[in-house]
TrEMBL record:
UniProt entry tagged with the keyword Nucleotide-binding: yes
Residues bound to Mn(2+) 2: H239, H333
Swiss-Prot/TrEMBL catalytic activity: a 3'-end 3'-phospho-ribonucleotide-RNA + a 5'-end dephospho-ribonucleoside-RNA + GTP = a ribonucleotidyl-ribonucleotide-RNA + GMP + diphosphate; a 3'-end 2',3'-cyclophospho-ribonucleotide-RNA + a 5'-end dephospho-ribonucleoside-RNA + GTP + H2O = a ribonucleotidyl-ribonucleotide-RNA + GMP + diphosphate + H(+)
Binding partners and assembly: Monomer.
Active site: H408
Biological function: Essential for tRNA splicing and maturation. Acts by directly joining spliced tRNA halves to mature-sized tRNAs. Joins RNA with 2',3'-cyclic-phosphate or 3'-phosphate ends to RNA with 5'-hydroxy ends.
Protein residues bound to Mn(2+) 1: D100, H208
Gene3D superfamilies for this protein: tRNA-splicing ligase RtcB (3.90.1860.10)
Protein name (record): tRNA-splicing ligase RtcB
EC number: 6.5.1.-
UniProt cofactor note: Binds 2 manganese ions per subunit.
Amino acid sequence: MTTFDADGITLEKVREYVWEIPQEGDMRAPARVLASEALLEEIKEDKTLEQITNTTHLPGITNYAICMPDGHQGYGFPVGGVGALDAENGCISPGAVGYDINCGVRMMRTNLTYDELQGREEELVDSLFTNIPSGLGGGGVVEAGVDTVEEILERGVDWALEHGHAVEEDLLHCEDEGMREGADADKVSQKAKDRGKNQIGSLGSGNHFLEVQRVTDVFDGDVGEAYGLEEDQIVVLIHCGSRGLGHQTCNDYLRKIEKQHQGLLNQLPDKELAAAPAGSQLAEDYYAAMNAAINFAWVNRQLIMHRTRQVFERVFGRSWEEMDMHLLYDVAHNIAKKEIHTVGDEERELYVHRKGATRAFPAGHPEVPKAYRDVGQPVIIPGSMGAGSYVLRGGENSMDLTFGSTAHGAGRLMSRTQAKSEYWGGDVQQELEEQDQIYVKAQSGATVAEEAPGVYKDVDEVVRVSDELGIGDKVARTFPVCNIKG
């Protein structure tokens, strides 16, 4: 048997790119890492393997805890982690969802070509930066009272449609059509609502960004055609989440769980995995609040996309309809969902936690939008500022291997603190512009340093492993042209 040793943790090779940490001690299931040996060498450098092992101690863990090829250390639960916990006898864990609830990505396609954009990069990046709020703190496309925030929390993108910030097709091309059922604004604290009311339609900071890209490669012509993608086309990628509202909601429920479910907490090897038992009032309340924060994040990205359409109209002198600026897809990265999955020979309802992981349902799955059901759900995987991003489709092996999931990005190699000590933001910006003709504008040089290309794993290798495993199949590759961030 082939093994891989990582500082006291031994992984056994199950098959190509599938490594298992065997169940032992108080583990309730094995843990699996989906990676090449090159990626494993990077994954072992932080606490990812320890964290994915700790995850197997959660009650109700089903089959195995899973770490994706882009996995890296997170809060309790690794980023790039998937854990399916029994919705009747298991639990739900805010730490296994993450602080930025429904951090996710959406891609908007256009009929513009790279040639049409060249020469206008600086004008476009300046206009986007001026018109789309970014950075820490407040400021959004719309500022609202708490009543409006509550409506957004419960209605999602349907609210944006009613108020002229969306068209019907936007909803049809969004995961869950832009509205999570079971959202309850009353389960979101007043403090969280106050933090969110002036951040509706804003990128925030950190690794969140808006990037104008060109399609450089189409690997699957039939699926590419179904997605409306072709080489040399301009697309826009938006990456952000639920801002302060989601962060506050996660923090609120972690504190409540620590007080009310100390018995369960004491059974876990890491208090950051704090979880509420399935069926408890707190589990139900958190799920309702999380669904509400999910809706808030979808509206946040929708308003940014709406403002982006307006910017393109001014820069290019055409209506957004004439430029065919339609949503390809919007998918969440930090989420827990009640889903029905086949386990053994029975169907079971599970809380599927995806933290830094993307739902990747295959062709034919009823939850894939009708427009894409014949080819599979679009999966959008952003790379770093100096590398390509990818559009995949849900692979036919995803339901068996990963509860219908794949990676969500390149995955960090170094912490933000380390990145700022090794890179200077101005140098990174200059190098990207001079070498790759990528125009970056940010609120601070520190943010650019934190997100320098060298901070991340090789997204090509992450996607290759996903493709080889059949959990997310390559459709197209894109490359940055303009990038704005907080």
